[in-house]
Structure formats: structure tokens, C-alpha cells
Amino acid sequence: MKKLLVVIVLLGGLFVTSGCQGNTSTSSENTQNAQSVESTERSVDQKQLIATIVITNKGEEVTSKEVAFQENESLLKVMKENFTIEEKDGFITSIDGMSQDQKNNVFWVYTVNNEMSDKGAQNLLLKKDDTITFNLQAF
């Protein structure tokens, strides 16, 4: 009887341990899936272009951020994806809580590669390595 009890305990232990090994296989599969997702994200990132967005207030830099974008994406779309903005008719009126003030003639203006833009953000298509500088300034 004692031998039978020992055999039952050993078989029970064997079943418990083999159950743990099944989890290891699942963990390995999860690791492989995660690596596959990372690889896919890297290949998508390689297709993305990079621009730099600089935010200034009265000429003083507040933030600077490199942003990824796809070919033919508008500045407005990229800004919405990377900053908290408000806009009206394709023109940005507030960035990260800093707003224009029409009564005091304070407005957002921006340059593209140090040249003043005459387009609204919705009409400007970003190009690789563009530097966009937004400045909240009084006129």
C-alpha cells in the first residue's frame, strides 16, 4: 500500500511538472510574437520621415521635438498627433495650452527651414528633415 501511495505521488508530481513545461512553450511563443511585432514596427519606422518641430514663445524656446511622418502628410495632421492643439480653418490657434490672443494681437506664426510660410498648417506638406518653428508673438 505504501508503494502504491509513493507511485501515485510521483505520478501526480510528474503531471504538475509537465503542466509547467507547457507554459514555458507559450512564453517562448509570446517572446517570438513580440519580436515579430518589433521587427514590423521597425520596418514601418524606416518608411517614416523625420522633421523637427520647435515651439517658441516670444522668441524663447519652449520645446523642440523630432516627429515622424509619412510622405504627403500635412503639418496640421502631424501637429495633432504630437501636440495638444486647437485650430480654426486650418490655422493653429493654440499649442500645448499656449493660445493666440486676438485682442492683444498675439498670434502663432511659423517658419519652415527659417523661411516664413504663407500657407495654413493644413496646406503645408512636410518634407524630410524640415525644421518647423512656431512662435507665439505680438504684432
TrEMBL record:
Domain Transcobalamin-like C-terminal per the UniProt entry, residue ranges: 73-137
The keyword Signal belongs to this UniProt entry's keyword annotation: yes
Keyword Acyltransferase: no
PROSITE patterns: PROKAR_LIPOPROTEIN
UniProt entry keywords in alphabetical sequence: Signal
InterPro entries in the cross-refs: Transcobalamin-like_C
Protein name: Transcobalamin-like C-terminal domain-containing protein
